[in-house]
Amino acid sequence: MHQPKYCLFYDNHTMKSVPDVGENFDVQAFTERVKRCGVDYLVFHARCNQGLAYYDTRIGIKHPSLKYDLFGKLSEACNKKGIALAAYFNAGISHEEGLYHRDWTTLYFDGRSLREPRLTPHVRTMCYNSGYRDHLIAMVKEVVSNYAIAGLMVDCLISYPCVCPVCVREMKENGIDWSDLDSVTRFSEASAIRLAKEIAKEAKKINPGLLISNNYPSYEKLKDINNYYDVVCLPASDGYEFLPVMAHYVRTLGDLPVINMTGRFYDWGDFGGLLPEEAIKSELLYGLANGMRPNIGGHFHPRGDLETAVLDRIEKIYTELQAREEWYDNAKPVTDICIVYPKTIHNLRNDMELRSAVRILCELKQQFDVVTLSSDWSKYQVLIFPDSVIFTDEIARRVKTHIDAGRSVISTGISGLNIQKSGFELEKEWGIKYMGENDLNPAYFTVGKNLSSGLPEMPLSLYSSGIDVQVLEGTRIEAILIKPYQNRLWDGNYAFFYNPPQEITDKPALTINGKVAHFSYKIFSGYYEKASVELRRLFSNVLNTFHSAPLVKVENLPAFARVFVTEQPNRQMVHLFSYIPEMRGNTPMIEEGVELHDVKIILRNNDKIFSKVYLAPEKTELSFEVLNGYTKVSVPESKGYSLIVFEQQIKIEI
Fold first, then answer.
1. What CATH number does domain 552-648 carry, 1.10.238.10, 1.10.3080.10, 1.10.8.60, 2.60.40.1180?
2. At the topology level of CATH, where does 335-546 sit?
3. For the segment 142-177, what is each residue's pLDDT rounded down to a tens digit?
4. What's the CA gap between 630 and 634, in Å, rounded?
5. How far apart are CA 567 and CA 637, in angstroms?
6. 186-203, pLDDT tens digit by residue?
């Protein structure tokens, strides 16, 4: 089974009206150019979301202007040049087939089969329980049987809710409330998972070594179907907060490879966009520093025009990355704390609390994972529950095991609260009792001397909502709430907008009981709203009390810089990033890296003895010193990205 390293994905959804599909396609020139880029895994459409095939199909609908077997020629050329080819099928969208088989399309709650707005690829979507299911499986089998391919990518297995007669009948048979949107959506997800399993089963009967990746449903529910995960992120449209969340999360789901797909364009469907070299490279480097293999998405011109400028940029970027492949190959991220966020992929993709928690830990240069219930928590020293994680019995059990092992927990807001029982699952461990929502608006706080390092001596704002708690015996109050003169409100005559702090209350803002710290306010939400450096500093002070020997310490490194640690046998790598996304109107953009000087990297030894430290790929050696369980090195200059390698002394037994 092929192990993808440098990937290329073509997103070519071609309208039926295009009159000249493939007319200029020189398959030898194209594959030779792709080979020069160092690409070893190419994903190309067998059938696109227009429901049109690019091969000689006896089952589906071939594009009417395509006069030859384009996919077949590509497969043959890739096979000769040693490029592993994967066939793309869009499962959730197939416009031409849906147009002629309306009974194959989803029927929405409003009785329509077409979605709003109309100008979107998702205007017509497919029902996974209709005759379309067998049709799609048959097309997949046709391609896997007839062409030398290494992989299969099934896209858009999205949980489109459907109340067509077929789905309603099946829901009734299984006791599912077909009138409830959430229930129908969950049923649709189960239908999508079932289809993914059937496709994989039938395809692997023909080619047992086939790589399979499904885009949607959730990663956890696909881990027994997929052979790798593909994380798709375009920062120009998704923002620069998305990839960090996904990079720290997907890698915790097992040993499957994770592919990091960015795009050469600004958005899907953008044929005329070519992002700056540093923008594309920064995304791929971020992935490599977090154990993800690079993938660049592009559009294939329907005529087959060779897009030289695009391939030139890809070649330049991949050539630079491949120069460091020795230190990327099978390198694993090293972490010792985690954010626990046991919610669905839909929350993970967009949740501001989680994005804020990830950002704070990145700014603090902490080495961490984002874990769900599908992950193993046992290796982490500190569990962090951001703002609104409601404890189930399973979570409470796992947390108690963690605390009983002498490890630490930091929770914020209502995290840890069990609404059904109106109290904490672990009141004894938390040392507090939930008393209801706090009504201060705005709320201020002041910090005691134990955790006040780096904080100004003044009332500080929280910028979020919180709860009231009763402190149990033995619990320390480390920060306390300050009330305003009046809450922010309109009383019929006045807008109470100006609300200065008045007096200290008896209500805790932060408590510590043994190995558990709890913020009574949603500090990650507050940081997301106002980027309060004071909130980050207070969180850092708390984290330092539980985790005083982090994996990495730094000096002379700004908050915007990022540091990640990976390891291979006998060495560890520190990845130093200095890129700043800038908002340009509606679009965040990176055009160049920021130059840094004399940065100090201090890496925890973990009982290792490092014999040399150098910059890769040049192998320029750096002087270093060992002190107090750490190895300290100074990086003279770094612009955008530097890779610092700590080689371990190898013992030779005589």
1. 2.60.40.1180
2. Rossmann fold (3.40.50)
3. 999 999 999 999 999 999 999 999 999 999 999 999
4. 13
5. 23
6. 999 999 999 999 999 999
